[in-house]
Specification:
Chain A has about 375 residues and is mainly α. Chain A contains 19 helices and no strands. Among the domains of chain A are: about 1-90; about 295-384. Chain B is of the alpha+beta class and about 140 residues long. The two termini of chain B are about 20 Å apart. Classes of the chains: A mainly alpha (about 375), B alpha+beta (about 140).
Chain lengths: ~375, ~140
């Protein structure tokens, strides 16, 4: 029943929002209707659970109005009571998502609101996932609801903003109890089913093609394993196949975008049964496409590493030299390319610098170990 | 029960230990792994005793910031990378006594270094102010 409720709650919320009900009031009403469903459905499961939830949520809205006092009740009853209307899921997913990912919200607020209102996670679960106190998360969500409360929109907004938030949720990954990567995939899947857009499919493919490698990304003791050293037998081939199929269909529309290009790079990595079989020429060419689409310095940095694999570390270092060295991971990339070029001493120095700039302990530990490996002298040179 | 903050420090000259200590990137890779594993295990050990509240590592780049008057941007000094005494990480434990807090800090300081020998790093132990008593 939890899964059914989690699927239906955002749909019901979208129906109310589309009918012009204030977002915060609608969200509260849907939460209360869900609580009632949990109490009553085990005894008498309605034939049409969605219609039941809409009716009960509508009643909760009226109850809330009554509690607000006679004057406001007179003014608002007719306006706010959701009129009967179609309940089919047209573009409601996108409508709801574009509200939760409205540009007036900070990324952290948009993420929290999306997980709550569309993902159907509880405030406690979202707080756990981000390692913040529940009261703090509750405030973040209610501030976000207030921020977008004044905005009136019956039509979906910017798809780009929605995709950005979904990708941020995906990158939060897995903190132990709440699997945000899986949740991001679930939401993107819903959006892809409701809205035709090759970039939505591109993002879904990108997520699947990365998620497929998850089991290989950490050692038994929890250490980070870079792509080149991963046990590829642990990759989820079914998920890769699904990602590739979705990507190919998206690319066939001829409307390439950033997420499709990133997914294409991920697919080329997933396609190689050993690291030596990686098609670096094609990967560099996709980085060129990506750079033309976004001109992002992070893309330029990743491209430099790919160039190093394709045309040799010296050429890679020249490409890296054109990228701002203040970027996160710049020193790690430089260290890697110097090691490939045989300059072990400089590589070790750069790995140590990179470790002081790491943003996670996992990444820091990995980089310190790289430096230690080179400094200990026992290091085998990397394959040229 | 009382809560204690255990602080690890960064010092550029590595004089944070009772014996001379080389920086971690100069250790053997397996010595680094053993140290990291110890740090994971010790958090579990304190958790299993019902004492663990939280712990985080901090990035070495620190900046000092202060107010500079209404409508003016904050004044900043730094960042200082490893040149000053900066906090490298913290752990908060809820323990029965100051004696136990010291025992736990010593355990933390016994983390293995080069050759598997305890690094004997100094840990700063500070009691966290408690809520006022409910009786007079």
């Amino acid at each position: 029943m939890d899964d059914l409720l989690r699927d239906l709650m955002p749909q019901v919320l979208a129906v109310l929002v589309r009918r012009g009900v204030d977002f915060a009031a609608a969200e509260d009403a849907v939460q209360e209707a869900a609580i009632e469903a949990v109490q009553r459905w085990p005894g008498e499961r309605p034939d049409d659970p969605k219609a039941w939830l809409i009716t009960v949520a509508g009643r909760k809205l009226i109850d809330a109005r009554r509690a607000e006092g006679a004057r406001r009740r007179r003014e608002q009853r007719t306006h706010d009571e959701p009129p009967p209307g179609p309940t089919e899921q047209v573009d409601d997913t996108l409508l709801l998502l574009s509200r939760c990912c409205h540009p007036s919200l900070t990324p952290a607020s948009a993420i929290a609101l999306t997980l709550r209102a569309v993902g159907g996670l509880t405030t406690g679960q979202i707080a756990t996932a981000f390692l913040v106190p529940e009261a703090t998360m509750a405030q973040r969500i209610s501030r976000a609801k207030r921020t977008i409360g004044g905005e009136q929109f019956g039509r979906p907004g910017d798809v780009c903003a929605v995709l950005r938030v979904l990708y941020l949720i995906f990158n939060e990954g897995f903190t132990g109890e709440i699997d945000l990567a899986a949740e991001a995939i679930r939401l993107t899947r819903q959006l892809a089913a409701a809205t035709q857009d090759p970039e939505i499919d591109g993002l879904l493919a990108l997520m699947l093609l990365h998620h497929a490698r998850r089991a290989a990304r950490r050692s038994a003791t929890g250490e980070l394993i870079p792509l080149a050293d991963q046990d590829r037998a642990l990759w989820d081939t079914r998920m890769i196949a699904e990602g590739v199929r979705i990507l190919q269909a998206a690319l066939a529309t001829g409307r390439v975008g950033e997420y499709q290009a990133q997914a294409a790079i991920a697919a080329l990595h997933d396609d190689a049964t050993t690291v030596d079989e990686t098609d670096w020429v094609q990967i560099v060419s996709w980085y060129d496409t990506l750079l033309a689409l976004s001109s992002s310095p992070v893309v330029a940095l990743n491209r430099a590493v790919a160039v190093g694999e394709c045309d040799g570390p010296t050429t890679g270092l020249v490409a890296l030299g054109e990228v701002d060295s203040e970027l996160p991971r710049w020193h790690a990339a430089a260290a890697y390319l110097h090691e490939r070029s045989g300059d072990v001493r400089e590589a070790a120095r750069l790995y140590a610098v990179a470790a002081t700039r790491a943003s996670s302990t996992l990444e820091r530990d990995h980089l310190i170990k790289q430096a230690a490996r080179l400094n200990s002298g026992a290091a085998q040179p990397l394959d040229q | 029960m009382a809560k204690y903050l255990l602080l690890k420090h960064y010092r550029g000259d590595h004089d944070i230990a009772a014996e001379p200590l080389t920086s971690m990137d100069q250790w053997a890779p397996e010595e680094v792994s053993a140290h990291i594993q110890f740090m994971h295990d010790i958090a579990e050990e304190f958790r299993a005793r019902g004492e663990f509240i939280g712990a985080e590592g901090l990035s070495p780049d620190g900046t000092f910031v202060r107010y500079d008057g209404e409508g003016r941007p904050p004044v900043t000094d730094g960042p200082f990378a490893e040149t000053k005494d900066l906090i490298a990480g913290w752990m908060i434990l809820d323990v029965d006594s100051e004696e136990r807090a010291h025992e736990a800090a010593a355990r933390l300081s016994s983390a293995p270094g080069p050759g598997g020998r305890p690094i004997k790093e100094w840990i700063e132990v500070r009691q966290i102010m408690a809520a006022p008593s409910t009786t007079d």
